[in-house]
Design brief:
With 145 residues, this protein is an all-alpha fold. It has a domain at 41-140. It has 9 helices and no strands. Helix 3 packs across helix 6 and helix 3 (44-58) packs antiparallel against helix 8 (116-130). The protein is elongated. The two termini are 25 Å apart.
Length: 145
């Protein structure tokens, strides 16, 4: 959970693909995305995203929602409130990355947040359906299940 936001996480994904290509006997030019999906194997980035979400869901009491910071009924009222700050150590922190990922989830997954078991199943299904290579790719996805 703590190393996923590091500068070496991209190198770890590349290494994982190389190892997988050797084991699966595929060409180096072929993408592993479809093979990972077919075999339901999560890449390192997806595992990092999943561990961050497990942390957020099991520790919900330490995070504030937007609705708890003000009483205005907005469509994002159930998103997690991100603290204001321009420090890079805050922006690169595990808490901030977890909130960013949670706020990027589709509504049909976030409504399951109060039932941990259902949330984990729904989130795992979402990850296996879309299969992301990075947190940025995850945050840009706009597809619902």
């Amino acid at each position: 959970m703590f190393w996923g936001n590091s500068s070496n996480s991209g190198k770890t994904c590349t290494l994982q693909e190389k190892i997988f290509r050797l084991k699966a006997s595929t060409q180096p030019s072929n993408s592993c995305r479809s093979l990972f999906k077919q075999l339901e194997i999560l890449c390192v980035s997806c595992q990092d995203i999943r561990s961050l979400m497990n942390f957020i869901i099991t520790n919900q009491e330490i995070f504030q929602t937007i609705l708890s910071t003000h009483n205005i009924n907005t469509r994002n009222k159930h998103h997690l409130h991100s603290p204001n700050g321009n420090l890079s150590c805050l922006r690169k922190s595990t808490f901030y990355a977890g909130m960013k990922i949670f706020n990027s989830l589709p509504p049909n997954v976030t409504i399951l947040r109060n039932d941990t078991a259902k949330f984990k199943v729904g989130f795992r299904k979402y990850l296996h359906t879309h299969f992301f290579y990075s947190v940025d790719e995850f945050c840009m996805c706009e597809d619902d299940l």
